Every structure is written in C-alpha cells, then in structure tokens.
Amino acid sequence: METKIKSACETCAYFNAEGLKKLGINTENFDFVVALAGNPNTGKSTVFNALTGLRQHTGNWPGKTVTRAEGGFEYNTQKYKLVDLPGTYSLLSTSEDEEAARDFILFGKPNVTVIVADANRLERNLNLVLQILEITDKAVLCLNLMDEAKRNNITIDERSLARDLGIPVVPTSARYNKGIPELIQTISEIANGTIVCKPHRIKNVPENIEKAVKTLTAKIEKEFPSIPNSRWIAFRLLEGDAHIINALKSGEFV
Amino acid sequence: MNKKNIDNIIELSNDLRWQIGDDFHDNLTESIYADAANIVKGTVRTKDSEKHFRLDSKIDKIVTSKAFGFPIMFLILGTVLWLTIVGANYPSSMLANLLLDTIHPALKSGAESINMPWWLDGFLIDGVYLAIAWVVAVMLPPMAIFFPMFTLLEDFGYLPRVAFNLDSLFKKSGAHGKQALTMSMGFGCNAAGVVATRIIDSPRERLIAIITNNFSLCNGRWPTQILIATIFIGAVVTDSFSSLASLLAVIAIAVLGMAFMFTVSWALSKTVLKGEVSTFNLELPPYRPPRFWKTIYTSLIDRTLIVLWRAVVFAAPAGAVIWLISNIHIGNESMAAWAIHSLDGFGFLLGLNGVILLAYVVAIPANEIVIPTILMLTVLVTGIAGGSGAGVMFELDSMHATGDLLRAGGWTLLTAINLMLFSLLHNPCSTTIYTIYKETKSLKWTIFASVMPVILGFVVTFLVAQFWRLFF
C-alpha cells in the first residue's frame, strides 16, 4: 500500500499530528474550555470545523452561525471543549448576539479565547479584538484568510502585531487547513500557562475618563482582588450597563 | 463579598458618569479606533492598489445595480431551475425504473410466495413501500442537483447580494431585509427556511419571515409545477417553444409566490404584527471561489439526505393512508371515491376537482406525493385502465400518457393552471408545520401559518376559475 506523502510540516517539531485527536461533538470530561470569537464572516465556523473535525455547514454570509456550536479535540492527552460564539463587530451594544458572546467570555471564563480575524480587514477587526483583550488575558489572535490577503497584496508583520497586542498571533488559511497545527499548539501553550499574555489595554482614552476609570478600577480591585478585567467592568459601569450592574450585585464575578 | 461595598462601587460609578458627561461611549469607541489605527499603521502593508477589492466592487456594481440586479437574479434562478429540471429527468427515471418497475414487482411476488395475506401485502408494499419509493425517485435527483448548486452560490457570496437587491422591497413591506436569505433557503425546503429565520433578531420580523416562508416554492412542489406546466402549458404553444413556455410558467409561479410573500408581509406588518422595521448592517462579503467538491459533499450529506430522510419518514404513513382509503369501503364505494364525490362540487368552484383536493389532504405529510396520488385517484374514479389496482400509486412512463389520463379525468387548461396556483398556495407540509411550532412555540401562530395560505389558495383559485369561465 502506498503511504500518503507527508508534508514538510509534519517533519517539524512544532507539528504534532500524532498528539491530535478530533473529537467531533464529544465534549465530555474536558480539561480546558476554548471560546471562538470574531467578526462575522471571518471563517470562525471553518476554524471550528478544522479543529474539531466536524462539518458544521459554513456559508459565505455574515450571521451564518445561529446556534452556539460546541465541539471537542484532544491534544497531547488533554481534552479541549471548543465553543463557537456568534460573530459580532463589537461587545459594547446590547444586541442578543453581542451579549451572548460577551457573557460567555466574561462568565464562562474560557481557558483560552481564540479571536478569529480577517487579515484583509484587520483594522476593523481590531475593534473587537481590543475589546476582548480588556475582558480576558488568555487569548490568541487567529489571523485567518491569509490566502486572500496574499492575493490582495497585503502583508502583515505578525511579530510586531503580536508585540503590540500582547498575545500570540497565528496566521491561518483555515479553508486549506494551513496554520491549524500551529494554532492548536499555541492554544495548548496558553491553556497550560507556558505562554503568558500581556494583553494590550485601550490607550488614547481622554484624561477625564481615564481618571474616572482608574478611581473605579481601584475600588473594584479592592473588593474583588482576583478579578482580571476590573478595568473593563469599570468601563461598563460608567456606561450604565444594567446587565453588568446586576451581575456585580449577584456576585457572578466571584 | 460585602454588599455595602458593592453598592458603594455602583454609587461611585453613577457619580463619575455624571462627571464625565454623556460622550463616554463615543469617546471610548474613538479611543479603540485610534488604537486600532495605530497598530495597523505599524504592522500592515498594502502593496500597490487594492486590485482584488476593486474587482469585487466591480462585480457588485453590476449584480446590485438597479438596471441589472433583478434580471441577473432571475437569470441565475432560471438557470438553476433549468439545470435541475433537465438534469433530474434521467436519474429520476432510472430510480423509478429500479424502485418501481424492478423492486416493487419482486417484492410483490416475494410476498405471494410466502402467502402473505392480500391486505398486509397491499398495505405494506403497495402503500408504504410505494410512497417511499416515489418520494425517493421524484425528490432525490432534483434535490441532489438543486441543493449543491444553491450551496455553491451561497459559498461564492451571491446570496447577500440578493438580500441587498431585495432589501428595499422587504423594508417597504415592513419586514426584515435578512428575510431575503430565509426566503432563498425556502426555495430548497420550507422547513430549512423556517429554521434559518433565527438570523433575524426582532421577534416580530422573524414571525413574519416564518409565516411567509411557505410562499417560497419548495423542492417538493417544483416537480408538480414542472410536470403540469410541461403537459398543459407547453401544449398551448408550438413544439419548438413548449419547453421555454413551461419554464417561464414555472418561473412565473415562483415570482408570484414572492409577490404574495411581500403582500402578506406588508399586510401582517400593517395589522397584527405592527412595529418598526429594524435596521441592520449587511456586509457584502468578498466573493470567494467555492471549494467545489467539499461543497458538493457537505450539501449532499447535510441538506439533501436529511431533508430526504424527513420526507421518507412522513411519506410512509401517507402511503398507508392512501392504500387504506382506497380499499376500505363504505357501502359499495371506497372511502376515497366517497370523499372525492363529496369534494367535487367545492372543487368545481375552485376550478379544481375532488381528486386534487383529496390528494392535497392526503399529501399533507409530503408534497412530493401529490402527483402520484392524483393519478391513482383519477384512475380509481374514472375507471380508466392503466393503473395497477386500488390504492396503488404509480406514475405513467411518458408525459403524454399522463396528460391523456388527466384529460380523460376531466382536466382542462384551467385545472392545470389552478393546480399550479394551489400547489403554491396551500398549507405547509407537516414537517414545516412541526418546525414552525418548534421555532415559535406558539400554537396560535402555527395554526395561522398553516391555515392562512390555504384560504388564500381557495380565494385565488376561485377568482381565477370564475373569470376564466366568464371569458372562455
């Protein structure tokens, strides 16, 4: 029998195909929870399928994913549960999609959040990325649709981007399964604490607001010493977000 | 956790909110955008012009233009339909050959050799088996062609452009622009279209989309439309134009369905489902070359087989019912004959007949079996030779033979046109009704969505029949 020709990647130490098992919808007894967030139509469902081996239908129109999909994979004997969140442009409004995505990252406390971004429209995608980085410090940017970016003559300095954002950046073309092994490796390193992120925090905030945020953040941290996203909660309180105020009252942040 | 401290925090935030004024949200958003712009400036380089984007926007300028948008839409719809009609013929007749002409007689003789009682043999083989075989033979080939083509269009990125073109029409009818997408899904299967309405956030607009999805001519109804159009409409013009005339007739029905969708959406949003039209951002995604084989594979597995399986599950009991009503006698008439005679008068008013009405009652579970049921019941009532016995569904080998049989059963051009209209305007199939209930969780709206189209169908066919008889 002819053996399948192995790609050069498979000889690389980084690549660990033997350690990977796609578990489909089997998500029992997982060790880590991974959330998949991103703008609509950036290929989240394709990344989801590539990681889990599922064949959830993907379509080239925004808002394709209407139900929260869950799947799993196993990597180096650790089990990961993957949750595909609805695509959103922001987390600041109160639409159903945005609240679902935000609540999961905030209260579901995923071990890793994979932010899928369209490499062709990075600037607009960063809007959501920067907001997510205020909420969680365990994230990786999956810079998807690199094949299209290449066709469009767009080059991205991934290392500078990673430095600016303070999280790992993995370029992928999920449709062609490119970059997925690297993404899995990065997810596992974040989950196991090998990579520690120092996420970018929103700068350029007007002085009077920054002052208010600092006062409030200090208060929140005094009450909840272990909270990772006190600054973001301060933002929400200043916005008067009733949802967050209630969560604070009912102790959901503890 | 100290409740007082938390109240303090909230109070502090309230005070601070007053201090910083109401520009907070805008200021924060601006800060984020400024950060994003900074980061991008240092990391992203775009070489020369954005060529690909330009090609995309060039295509968009044409396919969403006022002049060409709609013609291109109808051209694509027409092509997809034409390929489905032409392409499905051959595998359909092969499947019919295999399932109906080869396996069915084999099952019958097998049943005979083990001395199965006639009623059990009839019930199982002539009833249940034939209904399933019919649904598979009639439905599988067109679905296996239609769904992949539809999915390819979807992956290519054309559907959002359709939504874009239709948006203003939907807005005028008080519905959500995304309804264009669920409507398109409905052309494949109404149950799938109803599920797809989840992409609409506003409950009011979602309800409108659910109720009117039935006006998208679904897969189970295309074959009926195509067959009747070919036999009766195609015969009106000369031979060389007959296939064009039938194709146009079918497209006219599909477009009429869209017109009803807009009108009913409008009427609903002006009466029982009043409310604001919600605005939404529809991003036109880039055109992407579809991954051909992968798309074919997933659409076959995910859509075709699942829909087919559902149809089979619902068709089996329908087959049993057809056999039973044809073989259980009240007095010296079978139940079917009795029902047909009592429905004939009402049928005449609608330009239809008792056979068609009964067929639609029996075929609630699956629209696909309407034509075979009509043929079988026509034979039963008229006593014309050609069928295979009471309660046995069959379809005649050639369109000519089918046409002759129907004409012998009293069919005219009016009957054909009204059947096409009624096929568009009647209750959704039971799968869709069940799906509507699951999605709305409301008995009231489920009943409304099921009954309203039938009433419309009665009204429309009645009016057409009266005018027809006035003028011809």
- CA distance, first residue to last residue of chain A: 58 Å
Percentage of residues in DSSP E strands of chain B: under 5%
Could you say which overall geometry of chain A the principal axes of the C-alpha atoms support? Answer: globular
- Class based on secondary structure composition and strand pairing of chain B: mainly alpha
The major pleated sheet of chain B works out as:
2 strands, antiparallel
**Average pLDDT rating of chain B:** 83
N to C succession of SSEs of chain B = HHEHHHHHHHHHHEEHHHHHHH
Spatial sequence of strands, sheet with the most strands of chain A: 1-3-4-2-5-6-8
Provide the spatial order of strands within the biggest beta sheet of chain B.
2-3
User: What is the makeup of the main sheet of chain A?
Assistant: 7 strands, mixed
Estimate percent helicity of chain B. Answer: over 70%
Total strands of chain B? 3
Q: What is the share of helical residues of chain A? A: 25-40%
Q: Biggest interface, and residues per chain?
A: A-B, 67 and 69 residues
Tell me the radius of gyration of chain B.
27 Å
Radius of gyration of chain A over all CA atoms, rounded: 19 Å
**Total number of strands of chain A:** 8
